[in-house]
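Quick one: structure for this chain?
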Amino acid sequence: MDDINYIRAGRYDTPATDLYVLSQHPSSRIRIRVAENQATPQVFLEELSTDSSEEVRIAVGGNTATPLHVVMRLAFDEHVDVRFSLAENYSVNVLVLLCLANDENPFVSHRAMTTLKRIALGKRTDNLKRVKPKLRAFGVNPRAEYRVC
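Got it. Here's what it folds into:
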C-alpha cells in the first residue's frame, strides 16, 4: 500500500485532499514525496516545513513552489543539513542565500557564498537569464561579504 501512496504523493494530478492526507502519513518517505511535489498547496508545504523529520524539511526547502517566508524560516532551521541543503540550491531566493552566507556554521556559510558567486559569475546553466537581472537588482557583488540577517 505504501508504494501506491508514494506514487500518489508525487503525482501532479493528485487532489489536494489526498495530498493533505498523505502529508500526515506516518512514513517520512511519503511525506518527503508530498513535500517534493510542486502541485502540493502552499499551506501544506508550510505545515510540512515544521515536520519532525529533517529530510521532509529539506524536501520542502527544495520545492520551488514553497513560499519565500517558509524558505526563509528554513534558513534558520535548527538542523544544519536543512540549512546546508538550502545553501547549495541554485533556485533558492538570493535573499535566503545572503542570510545563509552569515550562518554560524562555516560549512553552510561557505556553501551559500559559493552558490551566490556561481550564480553571479554565470556558472549556472539553468534559468541564468532570469537570475542575472535579479542579482543586479539586489546589487550582489560576488567578491563581497554580506551581512543582511
